Amino acid sequence: MKKFYALLPFLGLFLIACEDDTTPIDNTTEPVEYTSGTADFSNYVAVGNSLTAGFSDNALFVAGQEASFPNMLATNFALAGGGSFSIPFMADNLGGMTLQGTPIAGNRLILAFTTDGPAPVAVSGQGSTEVSSKLSGSFNNMGVPGAKSYELLAPGYGSVAGVAMGTANPYFARFSSSESATVIGDAAAQGATFFTLWAGSNDVLLYATGGGAGTDQTGNLDPSTYSRADITDPNVYASVMSGIVQTLTANGANGAIANIPYVTDLPYFSTVPYNPIPLDAETAAYLNSMAAYGAYNAGLAQLQALNIITAEELAKRTISFSAGEGNAVVIMDEDLTDLTGYNPALINMRQATADDLLVLTSSSFIGTLADPNNPTSINGVAVPLADKWVLTPEEQLMVKTATDAYNVTISALASAYDLAFVDVNTLLGTINSSGVQLTDGSVVTSDFATGGGFSLDGVHPAPRGYAIVANAFTTAINTKFGSNLPMVNPLDYTGLYIN
Fold it and tell me: Whose CB has fewer CB within 10 Å in the chain, the N or C terminal residue?
């Protein structure tokens, strides 16, 4: 990282003309003296999940770890008394992992040009990171990809044996201090003088990326009964985060805490259109006939005439195709009235609308055959998309409600423990709605693959996006503690890895 300098203000230019005499102009500059204010950056520890680790393009790899926002912060902290920053580096830039030689995680994605056009594909080869080869020493970047808030407190979450049984995290298993260690225990053992905490996105994100196929566990205070695709109860989240902050501040450490972004601001949920199906006139007519969806529509109309469903639900569920572009996919929707007791053929299906969010991975599934031996079994057309491929408005509301509750907790903890508060939710919303303009006039947006803000997995920032996040942390830290740390230049970081 280059050392940043600020130009001293040029207060005036005085030209004194005395016949052939001129006064020379002093163009010299002096470096700024950076200070930590009331903070102490000498021992910085970053706690969180994949967003803290530097996860990008669906993998964790060396270049991504180097471009993590904590590493950017640590580089600038070093200008104001910060110490070394140790990272549990992966073994290579592929990102794949093995457990006793068996692959358990795939390589990172790159943009490749296929017969169907540009598409994310995994880098070829086998990553050389072996989970059972534990790293020695302590580490300042305690970001653990995939971790939910309550898992940061779970004993054995870094157990190699637990990874084999599916009860532990392979990323933490590589550098945990023992088989029974907790992430927060290992973080606290560093004796940090300053910390950043950004945790909890997975408590709603895994539900959302799974298309809402999990369960909203609001009201269930026992996380041991949750599946990983569930939404964490807000009271559980509040209790966990309070305990984490109390632990990290126990010895007087200062810190910064960030809130959780809305998933709807991520390209993972905004890239695939709800109506991507092109049809010729003959196919559209067949799909509308009584041999196909016409019978379904007629059955719905009969039940509406009997006042079993409303006219509004009839309109919502009626399926219709037309010749040309822009036909909406057919989806399953568990929130529709269950009519199978009246007619087993009247399953909970409808066509998607602009209010539905198709997940990024559905792009490679829509249009494929459910039955290779049946050319008419087209997924999303003749065969409805399962719940996991789409986040319905009702599911989006559950995600937003939980996110809002988590963010109330984060804001309250920032106030109660006098921490710098980083509003990443608003920041990512800005990137999604209008973009962030850089010094060269370019704009970083959330457009998939081209916007520069997000990586090819559609969820995690690209290095340039992480730089913008680092600047949000820096601004909050400078404001809270009176430090004068410099900003990172996002243009020093790529918006997309090309190989």
Answer: C
- How does strand 102-105 pair with strand 97-99? antiparallel
Q: Hey, what domains does the chain have and what are their CATH numbers?
A: 44-270+393-492 (3.40.50.1110), 277-351+357-391 (no CATH)
Q: What sign results for the dihedral spanned by CA atoms 144, 145, 147, 149?
A: positive
State the amino acid at position 312 in one-letter form: E
- Burial class for 376, CB neighbours closer than 10 Å (0-12, 13-18, 19+): middle
Amino acid 8 reads L
Q: CA dist 44 to 151, 157, 217, Å?
A: 22, 23, 34
pLDDT exceeds cutoff 90 at 97: yes
Give 378-388 pLDDT, tens digit per residue. Answer: 999 999 999 99
Q: What share of the chain is helix, strand, coil (3-state, %, to 5)?
A: 35, 15, 50
Q: Could you give phi then psi for residue 142, rounded to 5 degrees?
A: -105, 30
User: Tell me, what amino acid is at 347?
Assistant: I
DSSP 8-state assignment for residue 453:
S
Q: Which two tokens stand for residue 42?
A: 């000498």
Which two three-digit tokens encode residue 382?
């003749």
Confidence at residue 17, expressed as pLDDT on a 0 to 100 scale:
34
